[in-house]
Amino acid sequence: MKEKRVQLRQVKKMRHQHHQILTDTMKVTIHTSLIAAVTVNSIFYEDEGWLQSESDDEEYVEIDSDYCEALLNPVIEIDGHRELEQFLGNLPLNARTLLKTPRSVLLDNIADGKYWHFGLKQGIHQQLANLPHNSIPESSSILVNVDGLPLTKSSRSTFWPILGLIYGEEKPFPIGVYHGTGKPDCVNSFLSKFIDEAVQLEKDGLDHRGVNVKVRLSGFICDAPARSFVAGTCGHTGKFACPKCKAIGINFVKPGKKKGRIVFSDMEAALRTHQTFTDRETPEHHKMRSVLEDLQIDMIKDIPLDYMHLVCMGVMGKLLIHWVNRQTTQHLITPEMLEEISDRLELLRNWVPSEFSRLPRSLSELCRWKATELRQFLFTGPIVLKGILPSPLYNHFLCFHVAIKFLCSQPLCFTHNHYCKRLLNILPGNQKSCTVGIS
Ligand SMILES: [Zn+2]
C-alpha cells in the first residue's frame, strides 16, 4: 500500500515535470493519457481493489482500465516511444505489460466448462470508487442478471455471464463468467462462488474507504429459461411452470396442428409466496434446491417476470403479427390500412425524442423489429392505429396499452393495480367481440 502511494506521488511529479518538456515534441493529450493510465493502474489494481488517492482528482478516477489500454497502445506504438523512454525508463511495448494484465488465470472446472470469478466484492468496490467520499451510500441494493450468450453460429460454444448492477447506477459489472457447450449442468456449482461471497456480504457488509456499506441482493433479472434455471424450478413450458401462481397449464393444440402449447387459462389461481415456495407446496414446480435460497431474498417477489420478452416481444409482437400476417389474420386489416399505418410510423421519425434508441420504421420490416421498437409501438400505437384499426381491435389494443402504461409507472402501478388486472383479464378473450371502452 505504502509503495503504491509513493508510486502515485512519483507519477504525479513526473506529470508535472514532463508536461513542460514534452509539449514541445509530443501532443499533450498523449502524455496525459499515459500518465492517467499509470495513475489509474496504481489506484485500481491493488489486491484489495482500492487504494485511497491523496487527492480527489476526478480526471483520473473517471477513466477505466479498458479505456486506458485503448489509449495506451497507440501511444506506445508511435514515434514518441523513444522520447518517452528518456523520462519513464524502460517503457514496455504493449499496454498490457504496463497495466499488469495477468498472462494466465486459474479457471474453475465446472462439468464440461470453465468458470472465472471476477468477484462481487471487487465489482462493488470499483463502482463505488467513482463516487466522492461523502457520497458513499450506507447501503447498496444489487440487481443480478444471469443469461446465456451464444458465441458463434457454427458451434454450441456459449458464455453464461453473471452480471451485477448497483440499483440506481447505469453501468453493470461482471461477477463471473462460465464458458462451455451450452448451459452449465448444475446451477449450484455455477453459482456457488458468487453465492458464498454474497452471503458473506449480506452478513458483514463491505468496507469501502473506511465506510461500512450494507449490501443486499434485491433482485434477479432473468428471462424465462434462465429464471427457472437459477431458481431450480421446472422449465417455463411445463404444466406447473408459472412462477407467480399455482395455475396448472393445459396443452392447447390448434386444429390441424400436431404440437400444442401450454396455456395458463386460470386467471384466479392462488398466488405463490416465499413460504409456499420453501415449503414445496407444489412439488411438481421444483426440480432441485437452488443455492439462491441461501440468500435473504424472496424467491417469488425478488425474481420478477421479464418485461422485455413477455410484454414487448411477447404480447405486443403477437398482436402485430396477428394483424399483419396475411396467413393468420382473417382480413380484418386490408393492405391499404397496413400501408397507412406504416406511413404514419415513418412520419413520426422526425418527432421521436432522443430517449428512444431507434426510430420507428415500416410494418413491412416487422420481422426485423427489435424489442425496443416493439416497446416504442406501445407508446405510438394509439396514435398510428386510430381510425384505421377496426374499433374492436383498437379497443382491445387500448386495454393493453393503458394497463402496461399504468404498470410501468411507479405511483400508478399501486393505485390502479386492480384496474390493470381487469384490463389484462380482457386480453385473452376474443378480440373481435371486444367492445370495452376506456374511460
Ligand atoms: Zn400464473
Descriptive terms for the model:
single chain; alpha+beta; 4 domains; eight-stranded mixed beta sheet; 16 helices; 42% helix; globular; disordered C terminus; binds zinc ion
Outline the structure in words.
By secondary structure, the protein is α+β, with helices and mostly antiparallel strands. It folds into four domains: 2-98, no CATH class; 108-232 and 288-294, no CATH class; 234-273, no CATH class; 307-433, no CATH class. It is built from 16 helices and ten strands. The strands form two sheets. Strands 1, 2, 3, 4, 5, 6, 7 and 8 form an eight-stranded mixed β-sheet that branches. β5 (157-166) and β6 (173-181) form a beta hairpin. It binds zinc ion. Zinc ion binds at residues 242, 244-245, 247, 264.
The mean pLDDT is 80
Task: Enumerate the spans where pLDDT stays under 50 for 5 or more consecutive residues.
Answer: 18-32, 39-64, 430-439
Shape: globular
So what's the oligomer here?
single chain
Order of helices and strands: HHHHHHEEHEEEEHEEHEEHHHHHHH
Largest sheet: 8 strands, mixed
* Spatial extent as radius of gyration: 27 Å
List the domain count as a whole number: 4
Decide which structural class fits the backbone: alpha+beta
Cα end-to-end separation: 66 Å
- Ligands bound, unique: zinc ion
Strand content: 5-15%
Helix count equals 16
Total E-strand runs: 10
Assign a percent range to the helix content. Answer: 40-55%
